[in-house]
Amino acid sequence: MGTKVARKWLWWILAIHLVVLAAELVAPHDFARQVRTLSFAPPTPPRWIDAEGRFHWRPFVYALQRDPRNPREFIDTTNERHPIRFWVPSEPRQMGPMVLKYRLFGTSSPTGIHLLGTDRYGRDMFSRILYGARLSLFAGALAGTLAVVLGLIAGTLCVTWGGWVDAFLMRMVELTISLPWLYLLIGVRAFLPLSMDPVPVFVLTIALVGTLGWAVPARLVRGVLKTAREQDYVQAARGFGASEAHLLFKHLLPQTRDTLLTQWALLVPKCVMAEVTLSFFGLGVQEPFPSLGSLISVLTEAHGAMTRVWMFWPAVALGLAILSYHLLAEALQQHRDV
């Protein structure tokens, strides 16, 4: 049962990452495109029923216009429907080695389609959430992977070399766990120049977060390997003349798989939150490149949080991603306990 649940959540997380990875294709607008006349425009969700109560098979949107009675607000122009079309031409965009000239969906509305509204500069929130989630989620996934790999290496060295290497690495584990790593992360990043290019900042964030998360996996791997070394089949293989390298790769390291998978599922949301925290305080990737942290930072402003409820969507997206990883970790833990 645990395996089926874990597989379900793993497929769900993979689907999320594939969607944000294809942000250039899925997003209806460029993440940096500003339309100042649409500042804090409300969402324009797909409609099937028009203002006169008639049903339409093809979804459509209404264009937005300023309310004559309150210029700060928007109203729908219900005199003209703009159908939502799929696979629509757009300006060329680079997506890895490919040049895209189409978007997944769009509309002929003069104000465009904004599924989750716009921010203060008239930038589409749905598009920015896709791009921001890609940065935050992949930074967390890569940092979590780096932490697990470093933990695996450290735990293996503790068991295979032992002696002073084991004692030194375990003291480093205790020191790393005792440190307030979040404050240390912010302090190290704040010491570096803020006006760095996005790619070096992205790589630096992964390196900092990943190297601070290795301690717990290292201690767990050490414990699993020490226990596995005493198993009867390992002792029998050693008695038949198997080398230490053969024992390590054939019999010992496979025992750490479930532990490492569970630790990875637990570390990724922590690493995502670390990147979000850095971006929230302006220490991550700088504007106009979005991150979930920089998108959530708008909520600290009264006009963004209290009167524009759609500005909470980045926080909702972050919460769903974090919850998905925790549910995956719980399913993996149940699988281990079976």
Task: Please name the defining characteristics of this protein.
338 residues, alpha+beta, MetI-like fold, four-stranded antiparallel beta sheet, 57% helix, 15% strand, elongated
Walk me through the structure.
- By secondary structure, this protein is of the alpha+beta class.
- It folds into 2 domains: 44-113, no CATH class; 129-337, MetI-like fold, CATH 1.10.3720.10.
- It has 13 helices and 4 strands.
- It has helices at 2-21, 23-26, 125-161, 163-178, 181-191, 198-211, 215-229, 232-239, 244-252, 257-280, 292-296, 302-305, 313-337, and strands spanning 47-49, 55-67, 70-95, 98-107.
- A hairpin with a 2-residue loop joins strand 2 and strand 3 (70-95).
- The longest helix has 37 residues, at 125-161.
